[in-house]
Design a protein that fits this description.
single chain, about 600 residues, alpha/beta, six-stranded mixed β-sheet, four-stranded antiparallel β-sheet, about 65% helix, elongated
Length: about 600
């Protein structure tokens, strides 16, 4: 990156962190300034005390000098401690605010971008880079070093300025000192840059191992993996995998340390050479006879602080520049734009049919779609419509376009061609959040969380307990609910509550169905609604399904065609096309049709009364 880009990223980062928590930034600067200035009180006053001890030895003056030194240091230390406490308290606030911002960005991304592999890789790259130590907060850590270094250099230069500007040090020694500082600083800057490249190479080599270790240790410490480990005696397998990982990491680290050895040696040599020059300067001034013992002590300490501060400042600036590479990646994620057009029309006011605001009509009009970075159409020229209150099944073989059809319906993606209408209006023109509120969906790979049962159903902290219970009962979870120790307040799983309950796959699916019912949206979409249920539970669900769904529009995606008998209409997809549409009885009459083929392939499982 060029200097202009570095400065731009640095400026944006400071502004970003400052807006997250202003107090943290202010206390960081104040703390750094005080930490840098306090040592100079002792350096400056010690010189005065030493000279007094070696000359007049006046007790009152010595007491005064000592009192000023200790008292001023004590007062500034108290102030620094107070500021440091505030600073540390606001660290948690800053960290949590940053996490919230990053999470909100992920939640606000278009689903197309969330599912996109490039977006996932970018997010993974940010996480992996953060594991190396480079991240947004590292900026403040290095900024503190920059403030310390600059403050030390300025203060030291002020203290030593008198001796360097005087005739006590020859011009040649002054010139040697300046050249040595510039040359050694440049060499150290080069060494630090080289070390960073070597470390970056090391971290890149470690990425596959770190990813594997995260996966491995994630399973080792996840109690849900405990059953397989014990049933199949996988302890030796895991132990061997861990050992191989640790040996590989040690091998990579050994190679990196060998590469860094020369750089570290050169860096130490440069520091000691500069120390020799410092001594030469002070000795030259002392031989001129114009310095007292106290002044020699003061100038030695201050000059060495200049040297140390220069080293520290160079490393801090170098690492800030290196860190900007990560920050560029970090902000590129935050800058991902939303591609999906989001209209402003309120659904409630526009969604009317036959003068009833509760009625909706959805129409797919010549809709085709292909996923990003794909040349193959997942859906091709689909046209269909359905009204509220109807029960529609979407069936077809794997890869036929069923799930894509639902993603478009819920506007997780927009059509590549054609349009989808809600009561005659393109769904893009509606307020996005309001349009999403029209749908309740139970996806096949739904997620339940380690929260209370009631919160899982309501997807909220505050909720209608009576209605939540009713939804669970309607979804077939009523008997299990009676056995739970805390009812709706029972925590699912044991991640955060040792008294949490483990639930089966079928029970989880019933809770997910209850969640869809609780939302009480006009459209309810069920992706394989009974896949994890036993035949008895499945029959129970279907027997009362009409009662559960009521006047809502229900769309079923199913491989079990037995569910189709409960539907008013069936849409049959094949290779991305809607090839058949009709009722169960109508479609079975077409013996050459795909539905007839699928039905009779499964008929043996349904019994004779089909």
């Amino acid at each position: 990156m060029k200097l202009k880009e570095h400065l731009s990223i640095f400026k944006r980062s400071i502004k970003y962190l400052y807006n997250l928590d202003k107090t943290y930034t202010v206390t960081l600067i104040l703390n750094s300034l005080l930490a840098a200035l306090i040592p100079y009180i002792a350096i400056y006053m010690s010189a005065i005390i030493i000279d007094e001890l070696l000359t007049l030895k006046r007790i009152p003056q010595l007491i005064t000098y000592t009192t000023v030194t200790v008292g001023l240091t004590f007062i500034l230390k108290l102030i620094q401690t107070y500021i440091d406490k505030i600073h540390n308290c606001h660290w948690d606030i800053l960290y949590k605010e940053e996490e919230n911002n990053f999470s909100e960005k992920n939640m606000s991304l278009d689903y197309e971008l969330v599912e996109n592999r490039d977006t996932q890789l970018l997010r993974d790259k940010i996480a992996i880079e953060s594991q190396t130590g480079f991240n947004l907060f590292y900026l403040y850590s290095r900024l503190k070093s920059v403030i310390d270094g600059v403050t030390n250099i300025i203060t030291s230069v002020i203290i030593t300025g008198t001796v360097f500007l005087s005739d006590l040090v020859s011009v040649w020694i002054k010139l040697v000192f300046i050249v040595a500082v510039v040359l050694i600083s440049a060499i150290n800057f080069y060494i630090n840059a080289r070390n960073h490249k070597l470390n970056m190479k090391y971290w890149e080599e470690c990425v596959p191992e770190n990813n594997f270790s995260n996966y491995l240790y994630g399973h080792i410490y996840d109690y849900r993996s405990g059953l397989e480990c014990r049933m199949y005696g996988m302890e030796k397998l895991y132990a061997k995998k861990v050992l191989d990982f640790q040996n590989k990491l040690a091998e990579i680290n050994y190679k990196n340390q060998k590469r860094l050895l020369i750089s570290t040696f050169l860096e130490d040599v440069m520091v000691h050479l500069l120390n020799i020059v410092v001594y030469a300067v002070i000795i030259s001034a002392a031989f001129s006879g114009g310095l007292t013992v106290g002044e020699i002590s003061k100038y030695v300490s201050a000059t060495f602080l200049i040297v140390w501060s220069m080293q520290s400042l160079i490393k801090a600036v170098q690492t800030l520049l290196n860190n900007n590479t990560h920050l560029k990646t970090y902000f590129s994620y935050l800058d991902i734009p939303s591609k999906m057009y989001k209209g402003t029309l309120p659904v409630e006011k526009r969604a009317f049919c036959d003068n009833r605001d509760t009625e909706y009509e959805i129409e797919f009009k010549n809709v085709s779609f292909k996923y990003p970075d794909s040349e193959v159409y997942a859906l091709k020229n689909v046209s269909t419509k359905f009204k509220i209150g109807s029960k529609m099944a979407v069936v077809g073989m794997n890869g036929s376009g069923k799930t894509t059809f639902i993603k478009l319906l819920c506007r997780l993606y927009d059509p590549t061609e054609g349009e989808i209408l809600l009561n005659g209006i393109n769904i893009k023109k509606y307020n996005y959040d309001e349009y999403m509120s029209v749908f309740s969906v139970v996806f096949q790979d739904f997620k339940l969380f380690s929260f209370s049962l009631g919160q899982n159903v309501a997807s909220n902290i505050e909720y209608d307990r009576a209605f939540a219970e009713k939804c669970l009962v309607d979804a077939g979870f009523g008997e299990r609910l009676k056995t739970l120790p805390k009812g709706l307040d029972t925590c699912l799983y044991k991640d955060f509550d040792e008294n949490g309950v483990e639930i089966s796959g079928g029970e989880a699916q019933k809770i997910a169905l209850a969640r869809a019912l609780y939302k009480n949206a006009p459209f309810i979409i069920l992706d394989e609604p009974t896949a994890a249920l036993d035949p008895i539970s499945e029959a129970e669900i279907y027997e009362k399904f009409n009662e559960m769904v009521g006047d809502k529009t229900a769309v079923y995606i199913s491989h079990r065609l037995s569910s189709c008998k409960f539907c008013d209409e069936i849409s049959v997809f094949h290779e991305g096309e809607l090839i058949q549409k009709g009722s169960h009885k109508e479609l079975l009459k077409d013996e050459k049709g795909k539905y007839y083929e699928l039905w009779h392939a499964q008929a043996q499982y349904y019994g004779k009364n089909v």
